[in-house]
Amino acid sequence: MSMTLPTRTIGPFTVSAIGLGCMNLSHGYGVPPSEKEGARLLNHALDAGVSFLDTAALYGGGQNERLIGKAVMRRKAEFTLASKCVLDMFEGKRGLDGRPESIARTLDQALGRLNTDHIDLYYLHRLDKAVPIEESVGALVRAKEAGKIGAIGLSEMSAATIRRAHAVHPVAAVQTEYSPWVRNAEVAVLDACRDLGIGFVAFSPVARGMLAAAIATPDYADGDIRGTMPRFVEPYFSQNRRLIDRFNALAADARVTAAQLSLGWVLSRAPYIVPIPGTRSIAHLDEDLAAATHSFAPDILAAVDAIFTPGAVAGPRYSSAMQAQVDTELLPEELVLPA
């Protein structure tokens, strides 16, 4: 039997205040766990009260959607399912294709992999700058009218793009990286979500493990995307490590884990924000979920901001090649990107 967690509203959906980002069960951080281990974690998440699962066509080249389809789709009544299109693997290579016909094709493939005829929340994973956002959103409107999806989302898009998309059809959710360590959404996206009544889904809310006491040195396994991210490698890592040491000490003083403090901070920012941490560990999942019911004192949350002041984190969050696929506003210190 599933437990219950506090809930929040994302568009038409009432979901657990902390959801689960499923990417790293299939993608992005070296060798993924076995299908059996992934299924065990997904089912444990539902048992623990998680009612919001997030995947994408890109993750594992469709393997993450297949995992969810096999592992938990029989329990679909217990959770809201989100997936994504546009950013995908095309002929074995990662790419963007926001054309309506490509979106329709990716969606049909996703439905097959997920073993369902309906995805609750379907995002445009990235902005394809070669296709007007109105055309890409139009494809999702038609999918919604056909009953294939329930609501429309956008991922890593700017406030201006969000407003253009919302003018075509109401957007239920915007997903962007957000944590004390990554604050790009504060430039304009959070304000746009508030103004338009759009839910905000925060991915990587523990900074890909940096705010979960999980990274002591910049040594990553082959295939770990953090090895390509400037903040996670030298010369920036050592500078950022000093901030992390202060953050870890603050968490210890507050008698919570670093991950719980980061999640508590994200939850405190606005009632329309739902973080979706990812993990391969059931123990870490339970640790994360405990943040949903913990009360964080205002002075502790203020102390987090005092550590991560504007410009304190060294280096951009993405390389220039990765940033080229992101529409979300840059912070002033990111305007000059490394090669």
TrEMBL record:
Keywords: Oxidoreductase. One of its GO terms (cellular component) is cytoplasm. Signal peptide: none annotated. GO terms for molecular function: oxidoreductase activity. Residues 17-307 form the NADP-dependent oxidoreductase domain. Pfam families: Aldo_ket_red (PF00248). The keyword Cell wall biogenesis/degradation does not apply. PANTHER family: AFLATOXIN B1 ALDEHYDE REDUCTASE, ALDO-KETO REDUCTASE YAKC [NADP(+)]. This is Aldo/keto reductase.
